[in-house]
Amino acid sequence: MSVTAALATAWQLRVDRSRSETLLLHLEGQWTLASRLPHAAEVLNQATTDGHVAHVSFDSTGLEAWDSGFIIFLRAFLAETSRSLITCDLSGLPEGVRRLLALTTAVPERKDMGRQAGRTSMLARIGIATVGACRAGTELLAFLGEAFKSMLRLFAGKARFQRSELFLILQEVGAQALPIVSLISFLVGVILAYVGALQLRQFGAQAYVADLVGVAMTREMGAMMAAIIMAGRTGAAFAAQLGTMQVNEEIDALATMGIPAMDFLVLPRMLALALMMPLLGVYADLLGVLGGAVVGIGMLDLGSAEYYYRTIQAIGLDDFAAGIVKASVFGVLVAIAGCLRGMQCGRSSAAVGAAATSAVVTGIVFIIVSDAVMTVIFERLGF
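Structure (tokenized):
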């Protein structure tokens, strides 16, 4: 029996059924895409019209040329025979064809590739968010534990990091941050004084602007504004630096050499911010008070001596101590947020940007939450 193309005679297929339930397909001519190859289902139906078939083999001695069209035909033919529970012997095909067919079946096709993703239910979204939050909390606790162990090694004199890098980071987070801290703190003092003056002027109590600005800057705004600036400036920089090292596999290289990444990379950054943030907080307090003095002396006609003495009387050592404690805690939290997101960074350039953004958000959240907690604690302690 012979099956040929209706519109093209470049290919030819002869079916030999000399043995019962066994077909031998003779493939001759050019089996290419340009030859308008037959449909596999039609070939199998025509070949099995004479009775039941259990086995199919091929003879390609007359095959002149083939390309991807031949592979597509054979792939479809094998799928049809598989559905009909017919076994196939591919030994009669060219070696290149057998190898390509093996590659097409090496990775099974996913059954859900063409399926459209349905809308996730609210309960499923809540579950996914809960699992993600628990996983993030676990990673945070693990990171805090490693950081605490690194601090213990520092106190024991066993921490391994470069002192020169510590001094370089101190310069980056300290002296190089003074311009932006100066500008923001001065303007915050101006805003506090101006808003306070609008309300106190109604009662003829403009002189209390000095008290308002002094207490607000030393207890809250000085440390908080400096910390928020450092979260956006330094926390993002830490995350980008460590994230880039993750992409370049430098952290993996440190682990291979037996150098703890927490000691070598995270510890200097934590120490630098913990040491410099109290100083930046005090500096921000000073600039904020000066900004309030500009408004009080320039707009409210208060004398410079009067403004100075009212500020001194309003501010106590407990106010300065509260601001310094908060600044120190904020510094550690900003360093933890930046280093945590940097160490969690993926292996792509896009992941570095996402880590920097996440570090800023995480740092600001840490700052606000910790400030609220410390404010309540200080109030309970009468501090």
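The longest strand covers residues 55-66. The CA atoms of residues 158 and 173 lie 25 Å apart.
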